[in-house]
Design goal:
By secondary structure, this protein is of the alpha+beta class. The chain is 13% helix and 31% strand. The protein has a domain of 117 residues. A hairpin with a 2-residue loop joins β5 and β6. It starts with a helix and ends in a 45-residue tail after the last strand.
């Protein structure tokens, strides 16, 4: 995704959050909402990766922010490099497609503490398009009424992923 496409996508998401009736923000939050916070485009984190598909794709329980459980199939894993450091993530499969929750080293300070999400795009031949510039916060980052899967331990990274959405900032943010 080039810089212009990314800027348009972010503009549209801000408009959705501010004006759409299905926004994850409360009416009060929407009144004060200005925009989401993002890292600048990081072309080094727009990846085509080869996924090592697990021989046994087990369905596993993943806890949610409210203590309930959701189930995902562990599909496969891939490795990549961030700022010269190797990293590994697991991709999960759900009814709606592929799901990549992750927590990076900036969690709680720069990024949402419970992690961010991506929906990797299958390209064929066990290759996926993973663009961390499109990483987004789950709706539970914006209010306590949302139920979100908590990133599993295997997807907690010791490196910073300086791409995508950052911690929400502004008068509209509900402080936990």
């Amino acid at each position: 995704m080039d810089a212009n496409e990314l800027e348009l996508t972010r503009f549209q998401k801000n408009d959705f959050f501010k004006n759409h009736p299905q926004s994850p923000l409360s009416h009060e939050q929407r009144q004060q909402f200005e925009h989401l916070s993002y890292y600048p485009l990081n072309e080094d984190l727009e990846l085509q990766v080869q996924v090592e598909v697990f021989a046994e794709q087990k369905t596993v329980p993943i806890q949610t922010t409210t203590g309930t459980t959701q189930y995902f199939k562990r599909y496969g894993q891939f490795t990549f490099t961030v700022d010269g450091q190797a990293a590994r993530l697991t991709i999960y499969e759900a009814d709606y497609g592929f799901f990549l929750p992750f927590v990076d080293a900036g969690a709680g300070a720069e990024t949402y503490g419970a992690g961010r999400y991506l929906e990797p795009e299958r390209l064929g031949d066990n290759h996926f398009y993973v663009d961390f510039n499109q990483a987004y916060n789950p709706y539970c980052a914006y209010g306590p009424d949302w139920v979100c899967p908590v990133t599993p331990a295997e997807n907690r990274l010791s490196v910073h992923i300086r791409a995508g959405e950052k911690l929400p900032e502004g008068k509209w943010v509900i402080k936990a």
